[in-house]
Amino acid sequence: MAEQGTWKVKVGLAEMLKGGVIMDVVTAEQAVIAEKAGAVAVMALERVPADIRANGGVARMSDPKLIKEIMAAVTIPVMAKCRIGHFVEAQILESLGADYIDESEVLTPADEEYHVEKHQFKVPFVCGARNLGEALRRIGEGAAMIRTKGEPGTGNVVEAVRHMRQINADIRRVKNAPDEELMTIAKELGAPYELVKDVKRLGRLPVPNFSAGGIATPADAALMIQLGAEAIFVGSGIFKSGDPAKRARAIVLAAAHYNDPKQLAEVSEDLGEPMVGINIDTLREEEKMATRGW
Amino acid sequence: MAERFGVLALQGAVPEHLRALAAAGVEAVPVKWPADLEGLRGLVLPGGESTTIGDLMQHYGFIEAIQRFVQEGGACYGTCAGAILLATEIVGGKPNQPRLGIIPMTVQRNGFGRQVESAEVPLAMPVLGPEPVHTVFIRAPYIAEVGPGVEVLAEHQGKIVAARYGRHLVTAFHPELTEDRRIHKLFVEMAFGAVSA
């Protein structure tokens, strides 16, 4: 008998996206530009994070009509975001046939204490994390892919780097710890003990680890991959730049040859204006999206 | 004689295939540039996003390079996206989707539906013996039509999901995501010519 929605098919799709670029799009036209540029998937949104920041107010799941239009316009996987803890938005996205749900801090959280229980869904979930404990809590709830949170909508890669380095440092600590220390580490991280043991055995997260939040250039994408990200999410960085099609293409090429500086120099040439960007230390604490979720 | 195998490493599930080939007993290397095809016996085109991999192949000159590799005796194994890229005809692709056209067959992209339809399936594959293969289908294609010389190896829901053409192999599913190495071993044997179609 065929079995759908298993852990293997959920993680499997994440494995298939490795080495690729997932792009935020707000219209079917943008989705077509992203597909043409070589995106491995698109994230269907009503507003990119930079506009969510600028406009303020409550940011929610996109209009199903928009998601359906984007699914009809492209042949690559279509992801969509639900609010943290908003399991009904997740149910709606699953019924629409979204290929991945991002339970995302970019939207206004619907629950300040609890995330969605993700195992009960057939559709896979991706969640953001700033450290190993947060990543393993999300995996424990059923996330089949993790991405560093970074600080979305800023065009500033500094937080994505911080979160990736933190996760890497936490993994190194677990890997080098003797077995008798793992329970205490699990307690300190606030992470499920069994998953901490998995991390020690594998030397990495038990699901693919991608990067998001502030990636704006081909060099940013290559930096995150060299730091250990297995694929890249680009939000505002593409369609808030001067020449989205060209920049999108350049970031796809950078992801394919992330460790070849000559290639990176070539694709970085003459891309037009990048998105303007925000210095993180000018953000007030309540303006930071990365601190949403626990 | 070339002994090494390669995995096209532009995008997709590359490390899984490198591990599976190593477990099947051959040396396996990632292939990032056309020059890396030099000295290879077989090439795996991995699962991933076929539109992305196709674009990157075209951009870096892999279409002609892999066609030449095949003319010179190289063997190819395509899983999922890789199977799409080996086909002569693609249905449900993006406009002018690049492909290698090495196996005379028509492939239907996303043939079993979107991700919520993705599934694990125990599949009969007589060429591997009586024990069914545990397979993983992810937004998988199927083979809608095959040309002369293409041998059907397995079907799921009445659709062709595995086939071989001379020394070339395609599967719509992902053996690299399981621990069953029979399919990678079959490909290695085919590449060395121990099995003739």
Layout of SSEs?
The complex is a heterodimer of chains A (294) and B (197).
Chain A lengths: L2 E2 L2 H10 L4 E5 L2 H10 L3 E4 L4 H7 L8 H10 L4 E6 L3 H10 L3 E5 L20 E5 L2 H10 L3 E4 L9 H19 L5 H8 L3 H10 L6 E3 L6 H9 L5 E3 L1 H4 L4 H13 L4 H8 L26
Parallel strand pairs in A: 2-3, 2-9, 3-4, 4-5, 5-6, 6-7, 7-8
Helix pairs in contact in A: 2-4, 2-12, 7-9, 10-12, 12-13
Chain B lengths: L3 E5 L5 H10 L4 E4 L8 E6 L4 H10 L2 H10 L3 E5 L1 H6 E5 L11 E6 L10 E5 L9 E5 L4 E5 L3 E7 L2 E7 L2 E4 L10 H10 L6
Parallel strand pairs in B: 1-2, 1-3, 3-4, 4-12, 5-6
Antiparallel strand pairs in B: 6-9, 7-8, 10-11, 11-12
Q: Concise description?
A:
Chain A has 294 residues and is of the alpha/beta class. Chain A has helices at residues 7-16, 28-37, 49-55, 64-73, 87-96, 132-141, 158-176, 182-189, 193-202, 218-226, 236-239, 244-256, 261-268, and strands at 3-4, 21-25, 41-44, 78-83, 100-104, 125-129, 145-148, 209-211, 232-234.
Order of helices and strands of chain A: EHEHEHHEHEEHEHHHEHEHHH
Q: Give the beta-strand count of chain A.
A: 9
Q: Please give the largest β-sheet of chain A.
A: 8 strands, parallel
- Helix- and strand-based class of chain A? alpha/beta
Shape category of chain B: globular
Helix content of chain A: 40-55%
Give the mean pLDDT of chain B: 95
The low-confidence parts of chain A are none
In what range is the share of β-strand residues of chain A? 5-15%
Account of the protein in words:
- The complex is a heterodimer of chains A (294) and B (197).
- Chain A has helices spanning 7-16, 28-37, 49-55, 64-73, 87-96, 132-141, 158-176, 182-189, 193-202, 218-226, 236-239, 244-256, 261-268, and strands at 3-4, 21-25, 41-44, 78-83, 100-104, 125-129, 145-148, 209-211, 232-234.
- Chain A is an alpha/beta fold and 294 residues long.
- In chain A, α10 packs parallel to α12.
- The N and C termini of chain A lie far apart (39 Å).
- The relative contact order of chain A is 0.15.
- The relative contact order of chain B is 0.17.
- Chain B is built from five helices and twelve strands.
- Chain A binds chain B through residues 1-6, 8-9, 12-13, 15-20, 35-36, 38-41, 71, 74-77, 94, 97-100, 122-124, 252-253, 255-257, and chain B through 9-14, 16, 32, 47-49, 51-52, 55-56, 59-60, 80-81, 92-94, 109-110, 114-122, 136-139, 156, 174, 177.
